[in-house]
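Kindly inspect this one:
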Amino acid sequence: MRFQRRELLRTLSFAFGSSFLLGRNQLGIAAQAATQPKVSSPSAGAAVHDGITGGTEMEKVTGIGGFFFRAKDPKALALWYQQHLGILTVPTSDGETSWQQEAGATAFTPFPETSKYFGDASKAWMLNFRVRDLDKMAAQLQAAGIAVKIDPESYPYGRFGRLHDPEGNPIELWQPAKPAAPR
């Protein structure tokens, strides 16, 4: 598990780029604003990484608009996610609302095909959900008979728990670390 966390730390550092390397005050501002603060002009290599080319900023996606996947029993699985994690599916009639997530960091990271981080090698993806209180979420799931394994270690970027949906898909729960108070 320790090696896998190091792999994740490297991945998160790459995914969040310079925002993980900002000073405490800048990082706190970035976390509160849910945007990356302006920093001094980037080098040529960083310009490509940040999507800035030829002096104009590249158009970027603004977030994940949906997550679509195959399931053996889509209706039952959708109901499970709604009952246990509070995720509403796409509305099917007027007046229904879809799930609204809170602003926050999102890691988008391809892993090597041979990675053991997801557990079952036949699984090609894993969802990571941000949670406010990992212990409360785990207790709620366990009370419903769902096994949750909480990593006993706390990391500089937060705490983690693991579970599987009824079809065996891996889910990671992430309680982000609270930003350090400015000194």
In short: The beta strands are 52-53, 56-57, 127-130, 149-150, 158-164, 170-176. Helices lie at 2-16, 24-33, 44-49, 74-85, 134-143.
